Amino acid sequence: MKAIFYTLGIFILAGIGACNKQLDLPNNGKVTMDEVFSDYNRTRGYLNACYGYDPHPGIDRSSYTDEAEDADDQTAGSPYNNWYAGNITSGTYGGNSADGTPWGKLYEGIRKCNVFIESMKTATVYASAEEKAGWVAQARTLRALYYLQLIKRYAHVPLFLKPLEIDHDFSKDSRASFSQVVDAILSDCDSALLVPDTENGFHWAIYNNQYGMMTRAVAYAIKSEAVTYAASPLWSDGTYTWKKATEINAEALSALLANDYKLFDEQPVQTVAQNAYALYFITSSNDQRSYDKETIYQGGTQLQVWKNAGLPTTSGSLKAGPCPTQELIDSYEMANGQPAINGYSDANHLQPIINAASGYDPSHPYTARDPRFYASIYYNGAPRTLNEQASAVYPLNFQAGANNLDVVNHADYYELSTTGGDPHINFTTLSSALKKYPIVHLTFTYKSTATISKPQLFFSPVSASRSTTLSDIPAADDWTTQSIDISSAVAKFKWGDAGNFIRFDLGSTAGITVQIRDIQLREETQAASLVETYAGGLEGISANTSTNKYTRTGYYIRKYNNYLSGISNNADGAVRLFRLAEVYLNFAESAYQSSGPDAIITDHDLGLSARDAVNAIRKRAGMPDLPEGLSTDEFQKRYRNERRVELAFEEHRYFDVRRWKILDQTDQLVTGMRIEKTEDNFRYNRFHFSNRNCSSDKWLLYPIDKSEVNKIIGLGGENWQNPGWFD
After folding, report:
1. HSE on the CB side for 716, CA within 13 Å?
2. The domain made up of 391-524 is a member of CATH 2.60.120.430
3. pLDDT of 305-363, one tens digit each?
4. Taking the model in full, what pTM does it have?
5. Within a 10 A sphere around the Cβ of 202, how many other Cβ atoms?
6. What spatial distance separates the first Cα and last Cα of the chain, rounded to whole Å?
7. pLDDT of residue 715
8. 309 within 8 A of 599, measured Cβ to Cβ
9. Which architecture, in CATH terms, is 1-58+98-203+702-727?
10. In terms of DSSP H, where are the helices of 323-417?
11. CB neighbours of 632 closer than 8 A, spacing ≥ 6?
12. What is the mean pLDDT of residues 697-707?
């Protein structure tokens, strides 16, 4: 067995811990597992170590779907170029996918949860029975989450619910079916939910220092997503019917609504965000649910859309990232609730079938659309910022004391005379912090007997690395105003707190006399300007493959992006792994499939139809209700479009088109919009990208890492690789 110990990778990670407790140690390597689970802090520490193994959601995955064409699509060797070309094997998949190959990391998390759950059965740690039960509930919910993330990607996976013995015979292991793993997921969540809803138990509330912990809400969200996937065409084996999924989704939605979860509907002032939907995605969920009552579990970290998927005119922007496709744009309905586009009459999506009843005008394609469109997309003519122009002025003088300068303070100006090398003097300190407006200038009026060569500004705390060299300040016999743009330096050095100051170095020459008055810092916002994605515009579409800073499709992502974000102020939002809107939609999907769009589901006293659930989402967005009387097929079309729009750039589209088995219909071809500016208007031209080679059945699942597959074959001879990845 020793050979297996050093060979098995993730499988040995699943097996360590139960029998050889010395193998799973704290950092000092000297404490046994019995000692860990007899100590309160160490036990809590081990539970904390069970967290953090689920892949963090982000916006990059949208480039692997029909939501976006990545700006690096033509960059040789980029993940997106390889993906679209289909040039990926099981051995190279990890370096080219949105989240690598999370198989090993997820099983490491499962192993830790297994060890914790099993160890707590005999733990002697001094804690109440309720608190111990609460800890185990967290571990069970985490394990359920990790298995859900596994089956979404790999489908059939080995199911380990206890720590494995060190002599475990891996050759006898097999992969459990999707529904078998869902059985285990539901069992874990239901067990967790049996624990009392108290601060020490397994609770709904998020208490101090508990942000990011498993809660009852997370357990219900996991159940909802798991059964919705299990009943879907790709995974359904008859175990989880749509009726069964509806029962569980109704239970989850009813429980969440009864415990103060609700769709975020705070209407912002127009200088902050366009609407409630836009505000939600730039609002922090770390508020103990005092303000954001929609987020169930964030999972991901704060994004930097401004930097990694931003407008090229934003200072510090590195790339355009995922560029929204024309197909996604077409999916946003008109504000009157009518679809703008009813598909395409040609295979290349260049001839849209316009819904004449909608009011859509192809010569003004961005007018009167679903409010979520304006919250999610930067398009040609979109307001770049929402602010009214504002400014702030901070008067400055000089501090006492200077180096190689004679300073005379006259009634209305200072006279500075350089007497040696390195003459410098400090401006007075800021009496209040800057407002972090993006534009900052240092201005003054001066006369000078000679040119000041290579003057410098040092930003406190003063050091050589916190300085900027300015252009020469020319000699001037008359009073002359000098304005110096220090925006980049202020952002780079994170300067601008109350008490900060700037040192002014007047070159290196003696014998110069300078008179200075009206010294001030002025910071300001930019007046609202319009985004120019037309060819030749400031953010214009580009086919230049040598740069990835400009949109490839004619659009940029706006969702999550706070227009005030920049180098000195990242105010962008984060992707939520679970939120109430998804549970509404999961319920709607199973309900229309099992009972039709308009049947009222009374399970768990919910009293909603599938149409009611979708309309709740639309109401928050400011959209009219879907009409009564739609057939199941008609409703399915509207439902899938609603899910696509509401959950855009939240990773759902990638998994949805796979579980619905429509990947070959959605991801083979995407298009963009090239806009040409005419003398007094714009000309809109749809175009298509080269066909993608990533939409066959092979791409429905992740491949298991090739090295892991080879180990399994070496142990038992069975090839566990997913279909199409036998390379």
Report:
1. 15
2. yes
3. 999 999 999 999 999 999 999 999 999 999 999 999 999 999 999 999 999 999 999 99
4. 0.82
5. 25
6. 29
7. 83
8. no
9. Alpha Horseshoe (1.25)
10. 326-331, 371-376
11. 592, 593, 596, 597
12. 94
